[in-house]
Amino acid sequence: MYAEMDPGVTVIRPQPTIFTFLHDDRPANHIPDFAVIERGESVMYEAKSRRQYHRPDVHSRLRSAAAMVEQKPDWSYFVVLKQDILEDARYRNVFAVWRRFRPNFDDLQRLAVQSAVMKGERMIANVIAELSYMTVAPNLQTILSLAANGCIFIDFDNPIGLESVIRHADPAALPAPLIPRRRPADDFPAKDAA
User: Fold this and answer.
1) Strands (DSSP E) along the chain, which ranges?
2) CA distance 3 to 10
3) How do residues 89-137 score in pLDDT, each as one tens digit?
4) What is the pLDDT of residues 141-150, one digit of tens each?
5) Beta bridge partners of 36
6) Torsions phi, psi for 70 (to 5 deg)
7) What would you measure as the largest C-alpha separation in the chain, in angstroms?
């Protein structure tokens, strides 16, 4: 859900590959849970519960897998914890937009809303009022569907509704990545790994 709503993510693949690496001087296989192309970079993700992630054998293996993946230029490896997503203040907001992923707009509505936000950040209520002259004017659901489909950017840091801030979907001004993530090497220094 977070990857689908992140405007910087262009491709999502579940269990994209299997790779072999050395762990404790023995070959080990690993299949990341999902991978994305994020801001032009390949990013592998492993999903874990907090309890699993903090087991010494698991975090040692994840450090080894991350070290192998990150040897490649423009590749990163992160772990996403279920609890980090559920505790993320943006979770409800991302979910509220994600539910509108099925397109609920026509080309004229899309073009009108995109033109309205070309001038800069705008509140949804103001865009709706500005476009109320249209025969089939966009409403809140239409605009949230446009955001869910990457036609415009929406601010996930504040509650989703008429006061939400939207802006032009400018690929040169992408917001920070949405997925709450951790680098195993940052969470578990080498001296702590098995």
Assistant:
1) 9-14, 19-23, 26-30, 34-38, 41-48, 75-81, 122-123, 152-154, 165-168
2) 9
3) 999 999 999 999 999 999 999 999 999 999 899 999 999 999 999 999 9
4) 999 999 999 9
5) 12, 43
6) -75, 0
7) 69
pLDDT at 28 over 70: yes
Residue 153 CA: distances (Å) to CA of 99, 108, 179 = 16, 18, 16
Label the pairing between strands 75-81 and 41-48.
Answer: parallel
Q: Output Rg (C-alpha) for the chain, integer angstroms.
A: 20
Q: Determine if the pTM surpasses 0.70.
A: yes
| Strand ordering across the sheet containing 165-168 | 122-123, 165-168, 152-154
34-73 as b/e, with b when 16 or more CB fall inside 10 Å? bbbebeeebbbbbebeeeebeeeebbbbbbbbbbbbeeee
Q: Residue for token digits 């801001």?
A: 39
* Surface-to-core class of residue 174, CB atoms within 10 Å of its CB (0-12 exposed, 13-18 middle, 19+ buried): middle
Cβ(81)–Cβ(50) below 8 Å: yes
